[in-house]
Request: fold
Amino acid sequence: MDQRTLMQGLSPLKMKVLAASVAAALTAGLAGCVGGPTRGADTTGIDWGKIPATKLVLFYPGKSSYEWLRDPAAHKGAASETARGDSCVSCHDDAKEEQRQGAKILRGNHPLEPIALPGKPGHVDMNIQAAYDDKNAYFRYQWKGANNVEYPYYRFDGKEWKVYGAPRLDKPVQEGKQPAIYETRLSMMVDDGKVPMFKEQGCWLTCHEGERDLNPATKEEVAANAAMKAYKKTDVRKYLPASRSNVSDWKTGKSPEEIAKIKAAGGFVDLIQWRGHRTNPVGGTDDGYVLEWRNFDAGKNHFASNMDTATKQPKFMFDAGKFGSKAVTADQVGKKDNFLIKGDNAVPFDPKAGWKEGDMLPRYALQPADASGSAADNKGFGTWKDGMWTVVVVRPLNLANPDDKALKAGGVYSVGFAIHDDNITTRGHYVSYAKTVGLGAKADIVAVKLP
Amino acid sequence: MKLRPLIALVALAGLCLSVPAFAQFDADAAENVFKENDCHKCHHATKAKKGPSLKKIAAKYKEKKLDEKEAIKHMTAGQKVKLDDGKEEDHKIIDTKDVKVQTNVAKWMLSH
Reply:
């Protein structure tokens, strides 16, 4: 029985394989081998050398929101075409389009990127291979990038635990008050034809003014908004136009009852995200969806906040016997695999452990044994070697959860891809134009049926 | 046998004389400016997009005996253009005032 067979289905055997992978990852982490050979090792057993690769180019979109694309003064000559639903590539069809657009936006003084990001490339070349069997779809991604697998920390300042580090576009980083720290991420949005215009305009349907790093709404504005209050959200994140009465105004959210009807009709996009810090060390990949907000699926995710909001102290610290110390310090960032994993190297936080100024603990604790339900459907394995990321995402076929788009043999799906690297999040990503994936069917990316 | 070099020279001279003036341009540089200005979003080399193809534009200019000066006027004046659906829109203005660059782009466009 090969390893891929072991992976199929949600059997105890599969769990054993995953557990072995996690154990190997932990071994690498405990040895302090950043980017070691075992963390995130692909356990699918697929011979990827036999699976054809499709080359995609992802580019830097800056602040090209849904609203910007429909603004005649901004998206000159194309606003009305975009509004009527024309595809991006009906105009952006040059062979080097992504390279050209990304370079222009990052050249400096471009209206779509007000922050100077010197040296940041305008595009990323990505190879994608896809396969499927009776149980799962498998997506293998490769791209050149840095091995950024850190996430911001909680740092003890002698009195309180405060956030240390932030994504590159955040003000404290731009002002030099905090270091740029953020995990590398690989995302795929999926639609099965039920979201109008996704096939034509892909991820741009979800990217709106008011979201973080897109002229963000203030906390006060969000708190005062009835719909956001009903959604129990304190900020604006990705949403689909159908969730708003005015498609270009985050303030006009429909009622939870109306949102539930849209969701029941399949009017949402699936969002599958592999994360270098918060999912990869435990062999996981996020399962979420976008409708009125960027939601996680029902159940428990692979990670959870490490802050106890009642005590304002961390929930977990490192087990010094396994990790080598109970905490890390700033000079160790990027030099160890600083993943805090429940059931392995994490123990309950001890407030009397003799904390010193500068001690740091991860903001999120990974919880491989707790991950459950629809939120834990996807698996993921990522390794970094010689400047290249190789990430394999495993998605079960025929999911019947109400927050999933079911992938089926013979099906063709509209997809959009994104890569966040360079210690960055939100708009600081590289994105693809809308593509199609076919499971044994004609598409931009054809998933091959495994024997 | 001795006539061969002479024939070749005459043939080459004839070829040079037959090259129209508009053909003297740097195609790579012109195409780069054309695409940097996003002209390609509306004008494809051979197929109609929002605007007519370069091939169609070149044929029209030839028929009406217009030259690159008219093309430059078109790409720098921001004049109204009529679209297939009857609507009118301001034509985008090329982002360079360098006449040499404009002329190079115009010649390249009209070579299609």
